[in-house]
Every structure is written in structure tokens, then in C-alpha cells.
């Protein structure tokens, strides 16, 4: 029976003992004879670990099932009938190591085959030992070439760095082998990337696990380029290991078989950077966010420690939560005080190295370098210990022994008894700490105690006993699985770091983005997938910024296309996969659960996996115990959820596309069956439909996905969940493009387009407009082929609105009339009327709106009729100066809202503030807006929210309530989704104009100027004529306040010139009034003429408040 010792230990979660077993020549035969005493001799000091090993060895002797995974070179799993099944192929991130023996061809020609065989066996043994000790897996021997994987079949948290350590160790070990007195040489290539691994290739003894992807080829090509005894790594690997190693940058090099050059690095050796955190993160360290309370607590403990009341703070938290980052923040705070710092760092690959963190700290403090001779190191150590506060010569002997330096006559020999030697070393280290604390207060950091060797922890115990009377603050950081023995003591404070809030998550993501704004869709994904863990937030944000679906424009990032599914960032992949691989066969349940979703029920999981209840519950209990999921609900309605979204993403990411399709189809069928069997237990219709649409889509069952997508869209629309409805409509369009054209689908296509463009914010990204035009063209071709004139007219009207094309509108109106379809006539008239209104042609606009209102009235469509009366009748009558007519429509809309009880109409009633504002009835404008604006906020009717808030804030300003005016607009720009603020909507520049006026009133001229320029840019870009006019007027007022009369005069003139082509008496009168006030004294006759014309217009509109303002201006004007 042959056993892979390294893999057997990894299966047990005891990989820390691999080097000890290999160093002591424990093979398959010896393993079965291991005793308790042997384990103690091997350094297994933990009783729990000894018990676990003895149990596993007993199972091996008995040939039990627990031994099975270790007897094969490949992982296996149990089938339903108890048979052994090979693991299926998976998508995984893999670090691949390729090495070969330099000059092997020449050796083959020079040596006898038996001699060559011995050399190759020694070389392979050296290489395999290096790989195994670092947690890798030798996948294949190819003559003198060796292929190894790190990340399969068992992933580890630090696979990339361990692969490099294995490469360096391999080169060293092979270099110690000789052929006739000449040292052998090897070369290594390493690359990291996504592969498909696990397919069985070949048969019998030649059978192996294949790996498919670019990564193995890249590693092989790098190995070919490497010189003798060199380790070359790809940039993909370099990114994962940061500055843990020293490198020689080779730049971009051409590799055989690859079309593009590849950036490569030669690894010189491990770096001397003391902190893993700083080595991995210093180049991209983000500001500390959400940890103010914790830092303040540490500062208070530091103050106590400085008084001689030594303190210990235990900082715990899950991986990536920010333990090391808070330690860095504390050191930054204390820089001015210049404390003595003792920094001890544990390492995941040095758990079995006795006193490793202590030794490493001494070597750094003494300034050891890689090239120092033993004598030079002794001199440096002596210099360190001779510094003030350290001048105790008898410490040197203990430290020389600790650092394994050669002894000399000047040092008394240490006792030969291991326990006495340990005591002398401990005493020396404690004495050094005491001496240093007398010199200056000491900050002692012991990081990542969960990776510490047991001897270092014993030393910490000794420190803890003495610290209480020293000027020392000792901070110990660790993950939750570590259990410190010091908790509960008087001088000990425990701090558990919690996850960040949503607000803090957004702040950290914004910091990573360099202060540039990110699309709401991106921010939502970051919140959803990172669960408030700082490291995950940073890495996912960086991965998104480096993707090709975001591009930078000015001070913001914008989507360049639809949001794809997110991949787990490569920097987090290994640690997540390590947690999953430790599950063994239970990982399959995790994968199925991940396919179901972040949350899943027992019933659905059982249906998809076909597992017996007892077995499935036991496996779920394992997942709960492993901290991957949690359960909730009672026995009848048990549900589960992944604790971390990225764990779900990682589990799902391992599935091949074909397996995903198969699972999603099973899940959808199970959901449909559950719906039919237990209708009372179903989720809401919209949520259920969206869920089924998702699974049928992933199963690539387009027809069934379309059915549920349309259901979900309609449900979301009726619930005013506009973003969700829009996403469903876009998905429906994508599905229709995949299906053959039929008469029914052509009708659906048109209906989806008509429904979607009626929703505010349908443009999800910059490519949406061209995408929609593509769909419109396709739908129009289908309508022409089917001879459906009315549908063609509707589609032309939509395209006319998108393209701002008058000819398309005219064609649409003509087609609608020729079809005789009243609904089409109303639809086209509505769209054309709105387009004319945007361009300031109010009279023509109102004619089309009147036609639409009339038709909808005869059809009994009260809701659409009332909405058009508000968007057209109320708005464009007000802008045309027909205030009485505008108020008539405003009242009708309010009556319809009361009669129908419709939330959307109630929201639109807040827009009635516009005609009241134009009439100068400020209080009435406030009442109209305040009465209905909360409804608009509640249902997310964003254009209404923005427009109404602008009118409301300006009315408050007229009433002298500047605080209220500022509050209203601050809420708009802080709480309305950023994608809306950045969208193509007339409401945006109007709100910016109102905000500029508020800034101007407050005397904040620079902000006023910046904001009005934003408004002018938006209005000009989209040809919002009226908003452009208003922006020029306010720009003139800002320049006037800043004393720049030439610029002010030009802006006022541009406003009035533009108004010559727009029939808008309210805005014309306001611009005349503003310009007349500005010109007072320049030309008395012209100034008065401007004010008189303004007054006349206000009087014609019965604009009470404005009339008063105009009269006051005239009263103070210079006499003619």
C-alpha cells in the first residue's frame, strides 16, 4: 500500500507536520507503526492533533473508508450506491510550477542508463520533496520535466507564495546534487490563472488528471526562458505575492507559442520586509475607515502603558477584517512619540519553526542581510545589544544560540539540557523587554498569533506575566479560531473587529476608486458581495476598476456595457477555495447551494441532490460547523444562507458550464414543483417569477426564461420597482433575440419596448441607446413584414424620441392616423408632444397632448390620461404662460389621484408646484410639493422627485427659508441614485440651477459657478432649451455677484436671445427682470423698458409674487 504522506496530512488539515514527517523519513510502511511517543518526537505537541493522527493511522491499518482518499493519487468521492467515483472536472485558479533539469540531454549522451536513472531519481525526489513540503501536488513526470499544481486537489490560502518557495527550495536542493563532482542545475517557471482541471486522461497506469488553459503553457514557456538555477514567474503570480520576495523585473518578453509579450520576473529570494501585511498591501493601502472607536481605545491603553501600567490588547477578527491595518494606524498615530517598537510576525508556512517570529525580529533589528557571513552577523548582533538600554553582554550568548550563529570564546556556553537552554533564552528576551521599557515606552506587536509556533506562545505567556508593571503595550492579533489564555486578566482588553456598515463600505470603495464616483450598479454589487469585509471590498473594487466594462470619464467611472457576472478576485480565490476544499465530499452540497442562491431551503436542496434526509442534514451541519452557512426557521421551513457572498461565488465558480446548466434546470423544475404542491408557502409572485427566470436563463432554456422574465417585469412595474422592471425588460429583449421570430414574439417584442421606454431611467449605460435602436430596427422590420402599421407607428415614435428625429415623428403620426388605431395615435401624439416641449415649442406640443388626452378619455384609460395631463397639460401650459390652464390640469390630476388611489399619480401631484411658482404663489407651491413629494420618494419616481424638489426649494428661497431650500436639494443630490443624477433627464439641470441659486443666496460664489456650469453643460448636450435659458440667466446672476459685469452681461444676453425662439413668457419675464436689475444705471431708458416688459408679462399671467418683485425693481430704478 503506497500512501502520499504529504497529501494524507493535508486531508487531515495537519499540513504543518509535512516537513517533520519527510525529514524523519516517515514513509507508508513506517506510518502504520507510528506510536504516541513517535508523534511527540516529530513535534506533534497538541493532544488533539495526536489523537486525530492516531485515529487516522488506525483507519489505514484497518483499510477503512477514512483511508481511501490517501491511497490514491487522485481525490475520490462516494456514489449513491457506495461505489467510488472520480471527482469531476472543475474550474479553478491554479498556480502551475514547471521545472526541468538543465543539460539533461547532454547527460543522457554521457552517462550509462543506470547512472542516468539514479540521477533522475535523486532529482525527482528533491523536486517532489520541495513541492510536497510547500503544500503542492506533483501532477506529472515527463522525462526530466516535472509539472506541479498549487491549488489542486487541495487549495491553500497562500498557494502562489508557497509555489514560489517550492521553486526556490527545488533549485537549492537540486543544486546540492552532483554528477562526477559537478553540481546539477534546474530551472523553474511559475504562472497563475484560471484552468479546468480534473478530467481523467489516459487509462491504467498512464491515467492522469488533465489541466486545460493558458496557465500551464505559460509556466512551461517561462521555464524554457529561465537560466540555470533561476525561478521565473508570470505577472499573474507576482500580483498575488506582492513584496514577499525580491525580484528582477525582466519586462515584457516574447515567449514561443504566445501571441503577445508577457511580463516576467526572476525571483531572487524572500524579501526582508518584516510585515506580511505591508509586503502584500503597502503599495495599495487604503485609508482606515470605520475603526475610530477601536483606535481611540488603543490610544487610551497606550496612555495607561506609558504610566507604567502595562496593557495587553487582544485584537481578533476574521481574515481580511483589518487587524493588521489597525495596527499600522496605531503606529502612525504614535510616530511623533517615537516609542520603541518590537514587531513580531507569524507566518503560515513557519508554524513549526520554533520561535520563528522572535528570531525574525532579532535578525531585522540587527540588520542582517542575505549575503552576511556568520561573523558579520555576530558583529551586527553585538552592535545591537551594545546600544543604550541593551548593554548587557551576557544576553549575547543566549541570542547567538537562538539565532544559530557559531559560538566563540567570548560567549559562555549555554547548558546542554534543552529545557535549561530554553529558560536561558526566555530569560534573556524578558530581560531585554524590561531594559527597553526603562529607556522608552514599548509598543509590542505580535501579529497573526493563529499561525504561531507553540514555543513563541509560551514566550508571550512570560511577557504577559511581567508586562503589568512595565511601560509596555502588547497587542496580539489573531483569527477567531485562536483561543488566547490571557483573556479575562485585569490588564487585558479584548477587541473584536466587526464588519463595516454599508456607508463605510461605500466610503472604502470610493477611496479605492481614487475619489471618483462609481455607478450605483457597481456599488450595489460591492455591498452585496463583500459583506463589509475591508479586504474583500478593496480587492473586488480594484478588480472591477481593472475590468473592461468600466471606463473613466472626468471625475467618474461609467459603465461601458451591461453588468456581467462577477468573478472572485484572484487575490481572494485561494483562501476561499481552501475553505471549500477542506470540506471533502460535502463540497458538492456547497456547490448546489451556491447554484440555488445566497439563500436556499432544505426542500429545494434535497430535491436537486436526491440525498436522503439524514445524510443531507449531516452534511449541512458540517457546513454550519465550518462557518460557511447558517440556518434559520423552524423544522418545517428550514432555510440556509451563505455567511459570505464570495464563498458562494467561489463555490459556484468551480462548476463547469455544462454542470451549471444541469443544476439550474433541476433547481427551476424543483421550484415549479414546489409552487404547484405548496402554493400557500410561495414567495411573492414577482420574487418567484424573477427566481425562476434566473434559473431557466442559466439553464439556457430561453423560452421558459422569457415567460418568467415578463411576469417579473410586470410585477416589478406595478410595485414601482423601476430599476428591477427595467432590468427584466432588458433581459426579455436579450432573450427574444435568441429565439426564432414568430407573430406572438413580434408582438411581445413591441410591447416590451413600449413598456420599457415609459419608465424613467431605462438607459442603464452609455450603450443602451444604440442597443435599443438595434431592437427597434429589428421590431420595425418584423412589423413591416407582418403589415402591422399601428405597431410600426409606435416603434417609429420611440425611435424618433431616442434619435430626436422630427421626420420619424411625422412618419409615426401619419402611420398611426392611416391605421385608424386610436391607441397608436395617442401613443405617438404623447411622444411627439413631449419631444416638442423639450425643445420649447409649447404650442405645437400642447396640440399633440390634447389629442392624446382626448383619445385616452374616450377609451376610459384614466390613469394614462391623468399622467399625460400632468406631464403635458400642466407642465407645458405653465411654460407657455397659460397658468390658468396649467392649474386646471393640475386640479384634474389631483382629483384623478384621489379617485384612483394611484401612488404614481399622487407623486405627480407634487409637480403642481410648477404653475404655482410661475404665478408667484410661493406658499401654495410649497403646499403642493410637500403634500405629495414623500410619495414620489417612496416609490422612486425620480424625475418627479428632482423636478418637484427644485420648485420647492426655489419657493422656500422666495419665502426667505434658505435652510429649508438647502435641505431639500441636499437630499436630492445625496439620496437620489447616482445613475439618475447622471442620466439624460431635463430634471437634472433644473435641480442644478436651483442649487446654484441657493449657493448664490448663501454667498458661496465658487460653488454656485461650478453648479450652474454643470447645469449648462447638461442642458446644452441634450438640447434642453428651456433649462439652457434658465442656466444662462443664473450664470449672469453669479457673475454679477462676483463683480464680473462683462461676463454677466453676456450671460444675460444669451438667455434673452435664446428666449426669442422659445414661447415661454414665465422664463422670459424672469430673465428680463434679472437683466433689468443688473443694468440699473447703465441706460435709464433701456433699463426701465426691460423692467416694464417684465412687469407686463407677469401681469398678463397674474403672477402675483413676481409682479411685486418687478414693481419693487422699477421703484428703485433710475428715472428716465
Descriptors for this entry?
about 1100 residues, alpha+beta, DNA polymerase, domain 1, Alpha-Beta Plaits, Rossmann fold, eight-stranded mixed β-sheet, five-stranded parallel β-sheet, 22 strands, elongated
> Which structural class is indicated by helix and strand composition?
alpha+beta
Q: What is the radius of gyration?
A: 37 Å
CATH superfamily of the domain at 291-496: P-loop containing nucleotide triphosphate hydrolases
Distance between the termini: 115 Å
CATH architecture of the domain at 291-496: 3-Layer(aba) Sandwich
CATH topology of the domain at 291-496: Rossmann fold
* Count of beta strands: 22
Give the integer mean of the pLDDT values.
Answer: 86
Describe the biggest sheet? Answer: 8 strands, mixed
Helix content: 55-70%
Shape: elongated
CATH class of the domain at 291-496: Alpha Beta
Q: Number of helix segments?
A: 52
* Residues in β-strands, percent: 5-15%
Descriptive account of the structure:
The chain is α+β, with helices and mostly antiparallel strands. Among the domains are: 5-72, DNA polymerase, domain 1, CATH 1.10.150; 87-270, Alpha-Beta Plaits, CATH 3.30.70; 291-496, Rossmann fold, CATH 3.40.50.300; 502-566, no CATH class; 575-677, Arc Repressor Mutant, subunit A. 60% of the residues lie in helices and 11% in strands. It contains 52 helices and 22 strands. The strands form six sheets. Strands 3, 4, 5, 8, 9, 10, 11 and 12 form an eight-stranded mixed sheet that branches. It has a five-stranded parallel sheet with strand order 14-15-16-13-17, with helices on both faces. A hairpin with a 2-residue loop joins strand 18 and strand 19 (556-559). It is elongated, with a radius of gyration of 37 Å. The relative contact order is 0.04. The model is unreliable at 64-86 (pLDDT under 50).
